[in-house]
Design a protein that fits this description.
- This protein is an alpha+beta fold.
- The chain is built from 2 helices and 5 strands; from the N terminus they run βαβββαβ.
- It has a 5-stranded antiparallel β-sheet with strand order 4-3-2-1-5.
- It starts with 10 loop residues before the first strand and ends with a strand.
């Protein structure tokens, strides 16, 4: 399952970051790391962007970026 599939209010643990190169480095600099818990706060009406909470701050990701982040759903 990827981050874009989660609904608002659902949370997951990052298991893999599929991005490569500068995009992966940028995501990692913003705290998107394997093992981190991420919670979907809001999704825009057309599905892009997605607002998530990670490491106690909010981050907006494009849907394409979120699709490249594999997560495991946590309760």
């Amino acid at each position: 399952m990827n981050l874009a599939m989660l609904k608002p209010g659902e949370a997951g643990k990052i298991v893999k970051i599929g991005a490569i190169g500068p995009l992966k480095r940028r995501l990692m600099d913003m705290g998107v790391l394997v093992g981190e818990k991420v919670k979907v706060e809001k999704v825009a009406p057309l599905g892009d962007p997605i607002e998530v909470t990670i490491k106690n701050y909010n981050l907006s990701l494009r849907k394409k970026e979120a699709e490249g982040i594999a997560v495991e759903v946590v309760k």
